[in-house]
């Protein structure tokens, strides 16, 4: 059955997976980033997460509640965790972001949850109506997105603090 599932998977799905792996490996290295570039992955993961939830579970209050609970919990955890991961960048208008393997893990989590849920619903469409299935899937979608959004909020707040402590450092602008 697994070979059939893999064979019937559209080619664009594997392209998405390759892109996520590439971006995850890039995120594992220290790098200079602008504020705009810092938005790309959190917003892409938010879109992928919401798209997965909306297309598979619709406007179900159970699905949205689970997503919001998962997103809120991880957002709060990332936003309030200790330790800074950004410092002044070497290029004007940028900050230096310390690398981590966590984004790769979370991007692959969103991908795998999306893929697994799609396969499960293709095999047994009735699962979409099961509250436990919907709650689990949507909670994982939300938690993964919440991680990225919380980290983004934390990084932007740290950037603002750097600017307020060093107002003469115009090279730390928000381009």
What's the average pLDDT? 86
Strand order of the largest sheet: 1-3-2
Radius of gyration: 18 Å
Count every beta strand, where a strand is a DSSP E run of 2 or more residues. Answer: 3
Helix content: over 70%
SS summary, helix count: 6
What proportion of the residues form beta strands (DSSP E)?
5-15%
In total, the number of domains comes to 1
Q: How many angstroms does the end-to-end distance come to?
A: 50 Å
Which structural class best describes the helix and strand composition? mainly alpha
Query: What are the segments in which pLDDT stays under 50 over at least 5 consecutive residues?
Result: 170-175
- Please tell me what the overall shape is: globular
How can the largest sheet be summarized?
3 strands, antiparallel
| Strand and helix order | HHEHHEEHH
Protein name: Transmembrane protein
InterPro entries: DUF6622
Organism: Massilia yuzhufengensis
Keywords: Membrane, Transmembrane, Transmembrane helix
Report what the structure shows:
The protein has 175 residues and is mainly α. The chain has one domain. Helices cover 71% and strands 5% of the residues. It has 6 helices and 3 strands. It has helices at residues 2-8, 11-27, 35-57, 61-80, 102-123, 131-165; strands at 31-33, 86-88, 95-97. Strands 1-3-2 form a 3-stranded antiparallel β-sheet. Helix 2 (11-27) runs antiparallel to helix 5 (102-123). Residues 170-175 have low confidence and may be disordered. InterPro entries: DUF6622. The chain crosses the membrane at residues 12-28, 101-123, 129-150. Keywords: Membrane, Transmembrane, Transmembrane helix.
């Amino acid at each position: 059955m697994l070979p059939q599932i893999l064979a019937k998977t559209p080619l664009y799905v594997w392209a998405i997976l390759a892109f996520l792996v590439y971006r995850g490996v890039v995120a594992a290295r220290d790098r200079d980033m602008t504020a705009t570039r810092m938005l790309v992955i959190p917003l892409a993961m938010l879109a992928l997460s919401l798209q997965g939830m909306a297309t598979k579970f619709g406007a179900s209050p159970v699905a949205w509640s689970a997503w919001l609970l998962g997103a809120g919990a991880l957002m709060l955890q990332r936003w309030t965790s200790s330790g800074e991961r950004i410092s002044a960048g070497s290029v004007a208008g940028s900050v230096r972001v310390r690398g981590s393997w966590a984004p790769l893990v979370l991007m692959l989590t969103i991908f795998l949850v999306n893929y697994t849920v799609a396969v499960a619903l293709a095999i047994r469409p009735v699962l979409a109506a099961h509250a436990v299935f919907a709650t689990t899937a949507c909670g994982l979608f939300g938690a993964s997105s919440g991680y990225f959004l919380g980290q983004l909020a934390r990084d932007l707040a740290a950037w603002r603090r750097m600017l307020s402590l060093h107002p003469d450092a115009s090279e730390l602008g928000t381009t």
